[in-house]
C-alpha cells in the first residue's frame, strides 16, 4: 500500500475507485484501514473515490504521540493527507473514534469538509470509562510494570510491530518514561472532554458546525443511541437515520454492524447522491 510522510509520520493509505467525489472512511477504536474496507468498497462501487488510511499509532502507519488530544492529532493528519493528495473538500465519514476525529476536522477546518457521515457516535459514562482504559490506562499499567517490553507485548502494539517492524524500533527509541508521559497526557486530554453528550466535543462547538451531516446511532454499551441522538440535535443541518435498532448488552456489536454493512452503505450513498444533486 502507498505511504506518505504526514506531519512527520509515515501514514499508510489506500484509494478505492478511480473517479467521482472524494469520501474518507475512518473506523472506530484503534482499528486500521482494514476495519472498514467492505464499506469503503461499496461506496466506491457507487461512483466515489474513497480514501481509507491507518491513522498514526494504528495498523502499519508510524508511531508518534504529539499534542494533548489524540483525536485532534488524527484530524490534523487527515487534513494534511487530503491536502497532499490534492482532493479538495471531501465527504468525511467516521465511526466511533473515527466520528470523533471527523467532527473535530469539521470544527477546525470546515473548508475541507463537504459533509459529515457519522455512525456509532460515542458518549456516556460507561463509554468514557471503557475507552479511557482501552486507549490509555492499560498501556500506562503495562509500561509501569514492565517497561517498553511490556508495551510491545500488548495485542495492539504487537500487531503494529508485525505490520511494520520499524514501529518496534520507534517505541524502543522512545523509552518507557516518554511513552508513559505521552499516554498520561493523552488520557488527560480524553478525560477533559469525555463527559459531553457527544464524547470529545462540547455542545457549543457541535452547534457551531453548520455543514450537512447524517447521523446513524449505535446500539451497544459504548455506542448507545443517546449520543447519536444528541449529535443530531446539536448539528443543525443533520438528518437522522437508524440501521440497528435493538440495543445489545455488549461493549461493541462488531458482528451486528458487519452484517449491516450493506444497509449502512445504502444510507450513506443515498445521502451522498442527494448532496451531489443539490
The fourth-level CATH homologous superfamily of the largest domain is Alpha/Beta hydrolase fold, catalytic domain
Ends apart, CA distance between termini:
35 Å
CATH architecture assignment of the largest domain:
3-Layer(aba) Sandwich
Task: Outline the low-pLDDT stretches.
Answer: none
- Sheet with most strands: strand arrangement: 1-2-4-3-5-6-7-8
Q: Return the average pLDDT rounded to an integer.
A: 96
Largest sheet: 8 strands, mixed
The number of helical runs is: 11
What portion of residues belong to β-strands?
15-25%
H/E element sequence: EEEHEHEHEHHHHHEHEHH
Give the beta-strand count.
Answer: 8
Taken together, the total number of domains comes to 2
* Basic shape: globular
What value does the Rg take, in angstroms?
18 Å
- Top-tier CATH class of the largest domain: Alpha Beta
Characterise this structure.
With 278 residues, this protein is α/β, with parallel strands linked by helices. The protein folds into 2 domains: 3-123 and 207-277, Rossmann fold, CATH 3.40.50.1820; 129-190, no CATH class. The chain contains 11 helices and 8 strands. The chain has an 8-stranded mixed sheet, with helices on both faces. The radius of gyration is 18 Å and the shape is globular. The chain starts with a strand and ends with a helix. The model has no long low-confidence stretch (mean pLDDT 96).
